[in-house]
Amino acid sequence: MTDSKASIEHARVAIVTGGAAGVGQAIVRKLAHEGVAVVVADRDIAAARKLEHELVAGGAGILATETDVNDDVSLERTLSSALERFGQVDYLVNNAGMLGPIKPFWECTDAEVERVYGINVRAVFACTRIVARHMIERRSGSIVTIASVAGKDGPKGLSIYASSKAAVIGFTKSWAKDLAPFGVRANCVSPSLVEATGMQGEMPAWFSQDSIGRIPMGRAARTDEVANVVYFLLSSESSFVTAACYDVSGGRATY
Fold first, then answer.
1. What pTM does this model have?
2. Annotation says 161 is catalytic
């Protein structure tokens, strides 16, 4: 038991928000496969614990935490749990997010704007601010936030979501410059439509089909394809990459 605990303490450690399902789960699995200890931070604690039990049985260092990204106290508690269990945090993946309404902007309400921005923008700021302080103290760390190709091309009927993800791209570039003197990198990933996720499930069939029709490779991304790029950006393999937005869009992104 002592040897096992020691090995976990010396492993790289990641926090993945929204890590119990979809792209988040694929990222957790990829990190665990690469020997990274992972905190699965999700409001669905039952799903997070199910994933924890599965991966722990396979020898991975996993901790499920019930985390509400809209609650700073919950985020602080998640960081404390990670430090108590693993001793450090090397990686942060801001994956939790939501799609929001698909309709013309003049039909959108202030409440809808606030809800989407609350999760996609404010919560990412809060989570990163809390974890970055720990990384700054250690003068080491890597942060990846999930943006979207929608933040670059602004799809019709998706103005709230698209603008929230454009904000992700913008603040990632600013954060990277703030953090560079402390040895902490910040990047983001902008996928196109990703298959078999809750976000795709929120879309009407016509919207999903239209999104796929705009992808030159002719299909949606797989969750593991997104996870592979996230891991690259977290890892030392991308040690001179910061302030970048990597597309996983099958050629859809125009810039």
1. 0.92
2. yes
